[in-house]
Amino acid sequence: MAREIDRRAARTRKALHQALMTLMLRKGYEALSVQDIVDEADIGRSTFYAHYTGKEDLLRSGFQMLREELKEAQSAVRAAAGTSHDDPLGFSTAMFEHAARYADHYRTMIGARDGAVAENEIRLILSEMVRREMPRTLHGDRMPRDFVVQFIVGAFLTTLNWWFERKPGLLPSEVDVMFRSLVLDGLSPLVDDRHR
Amino acid sequence: MAREIDRRAARTRKALHQALMTLMLRKGYEALSVQDIVDEADIGRSTFYAHYTGKEDLLRSGFQMLREELKEAQSAVRAAAGTSHDDPLGFSTAMFEHAARYADHYRTMIGARDGAVAENEIRLILSEMVRREMPRTLHGDRMPRDFVVQFIVGAFLTTLNWWFERKPGLLPSEVDVMFRSLVLDGLSPLVDDRHR
DNA sequence: TATGATAATGGACACTATGTTCGGAATTTT
DNA sequence: AAAATTCCGAACATAGTGTCCATTATCATA
User: Fold this and answer.
1) pLDDT for B41-71, tens place per residue?
2) Which pLDDT tens digit goes with each residue over A109-118?
3) What pLDDT is recorded for position A1?
């Protein structure tokens, strides 16, 4: 069978991915140059371009691989254990634990707020706005106000994005109703069997 | 009184902000160079650097101004009309309408997904995961599944971020409880007087 | 293990952008 | 009108990009 990838190519790719991870943890993604990466990986620059078009391509291909691995893993689990019946948040517990274990990695990937300058600023503005309007009466301290504010702002931006990208035809009022419904009452009204 | 800014400086700044907006709408933020901006604004390059350290600084200062304007505006409204009593989402209706009117602007600001490559990929992975686990029984078609998925993923990432940035001491299980509570039941349990 | 195929190397090159400096010109302030 | 400030534009040093190519190293396989 000759349809395997040349070992050299495989090694090169692995070295590059490895170097990318190392450097991202150290300096963050934005700050990296292709130069940095090939230096860290100890790979020729022209070789890099023989495999990827740039650092973004490299990063994407890494996630691509991860995605396929996860897909298989999940299928396996799904086949073995019984599907957690009707829990739309079944993933959360495991994911939070995973995130805790690999906190550094998650931070660099998600907290990579370098790129989206505009979105960050908008988040700030909206946060101020929401914080100001939020009733003092937040029922004890079950939930940190801070957290609630972020939740609301995040949901708002998600809604805005979905609206623009998927259903630009909807009216503002229609979108507003959906937003408020989801944020105020959550998912439970949408799920059949009441829990608890 | 000598504490006004030189007119020339003011003009320069205005021209630069104007040029930035124009170009962002045309090509997006990431694709812009300082060169592009000063060309569009018809301003000398060295002059640019006399005012800002780079395009990010320029963008930030724009938002800075906007933020202060909004703050005043909101204070004014707040003083005049009665505060909308205890509605933690009081801002939403007006904001959605505003967004509809200036859709192009919002798109370029928020949809600027060029920057956060990693976060985008993570969103994709999580979306697949959530979509797969979401019960078929989504109670009619009151809410597009699509939208619900994005909502869940967004809330998850928000939670993760808040956890890491603000309360890294919490246990995964504790965070999970908060996440599930907010996403499943929404804000209403937190607000005193029941609505409807 | 010889050999043809494939990949890696490293240096050269053209290009684009960055950020700084400075003298002279233009405009504003007083 | 003089003094102060800002703008201009060109020059410069630096850094990174992406491509090309001749040479060398490694691999697949018969």
Assistant:
1) 999 999 999 999 999 999 999 999 999 998 8
2) 987 677 789 9
3) 39
d(Cα B173, Cα A67) in Å, to the nearest integer?
Answer: 25
Nearest protein residue to nucleotide C22 (CA to C1' distance) is: B46
Q: How many CB pairs under 8 A join A and B?
A: 298
One-letter amino acid for residue A52 of the chain? Y
Neighbours of B156 (CB within 10 A): 24
Alpha helices by DSSP H, listed for B102-167, are 103-110, 117-133, 145-166
Four-residue CA torsion sign, B156, B159, B164, B168: negative
Rounded CA separation A195/A191 (Å): 9
Round to whole Å and give the CA distance between A187 and B10. Answer: 50
User: So where are chain B's domains?
Assistant: 7-110, 117-190
Bigger pLDDT: A85 or B135?
Answer: B135
Give me the DSSP letters along B50-93: HH-SSHHHHHHHHHHHHHHHHHHHHHHHHHHSPPPTT-TTTTHH
The shortest CB-CB distance from A178 to any of B147, B154, B157 is to B147
Rg (CA), chain A: 22
pLDDT tier at A196, thresholds 50, 70, 90? very low
State the nearest Cα–Cα gap between B49 and chain A, in angstroms.
19
CA distance B124 to B149: 11
Strand D bases near protein CB (under 7 Å) are 5-11, 15-21, 26-29
pLDDT in tens, B185-194: 999 998 865 5
CATH of B7-110 among 3.40.1350.10, 1.20.1070.10, 3.30.230.10, 1.10.357.10: 1.10.357.10
Q: How confident is the model at residue A77 (pLDDT cuts 50, 70, 90)?
A: confident
Contact A187 B152 (CB under 8 A): yes
Please say if the pLDDT value at position A81 is more than 80. no
A6 vs chain B: nearest CA distance in angstroms?
A: 28
Tell me the C-alpha distance between A91 and A80, whole Å: 16
Residue of chain B whose Cα is closest to the Cα of A112: B116
